[in-house]
Amino acid sequence: MMLDTTDRAILNRMQDDLPLTTHPFADIADDLGIPEAELLSRLGRLQNDRVITRFGPFFDAAAMGGAFCLCAMAVPADKFETVLTKVNAHPEVAHNYERTHRLNMWFVMATETPQGIAITADAIERETGIEVLQFPKLQEFFIGFRVAA
């Protein structure tokens, strides 16, 4: 799918703050100079086309007493889609990416408690028969993402 200038502007704007108003999408549409209905339609299309996989707030689990953890798995190619479905079924899992090396599945877990990381990793291992390697967060970095206009 090709992104036009408006799609790119929407993707960049949606990564900033969401206005805490009664009509936040109308406010964002005004910022972008488009009707609210067009903004909502484009967001739906971007999600349906898998340009974006999720739209929602980002919570700092650690600041709320929980934990984050980067995880990796070495998944046989012929089982990748099956394992992907099982891993992604866990609400604690986000940002699941396929890579082109032995550790070919990488994802982030966010849990309500630090113990939740091990509990979820153990559940995934039982369901898939594949070890979940855990790389706990040692330091926080903010990496902004922008789509070139």
List the helices and strands and how they pair.
Layout lengths: L4 H9 L10 H9 L3 H13 L18 E7 L6 H9 L4 E6 L6 E7 L3 H14 L4 E4 L13
Helix pairs in contact: 2-3
What report would you give on this structure?
There is one protein chain. By secondary structure, the chain is α+β, with helices and mostly antiparallel strands. The chain has helices spanning 5-13, 24-32, 36-48, 80-88, 115-128, and strands spanning 67-73, 93-98, 105-111, 133-136. A four-stranded antiparallel beta sheet has the order 2-3-1-4. A hairpin with a 6-residue loop joins strand 2 and strand 3. Helix 2 crosses helix 3 (36-48). It starts with a helix and ends in a 13-residue tail after the last strand. The model has no long low-confidence stretch (mean pLDDT 90).
In short, what is this structure?
The chain is an alpha+beta fold. Helices cover 36% and strands 16% of the residues.
Shape call: globular
Walk across the major sheet and give the strand order: 2-3-1-4
Number of strands: 4
**Average of per-residue pLDDT values:** 90
Helix content: 25-40%
Secondary-structure element series: HHHEHEEHE
Number of helices: 5
**Rg over C-alpha atoms, rounded to the nearest angstrom:** 18 Å
Strand-pairing-aware structural class: alpha+beta
Gap between N and C termini, in Å?
15 Å
Biggest beta sheet attributes: 4 strands, antiparallel
Spans of at least 5 consecutive residues whose pLDDT stays below 50 are none
Percent of residues in beta strands: 15-25%
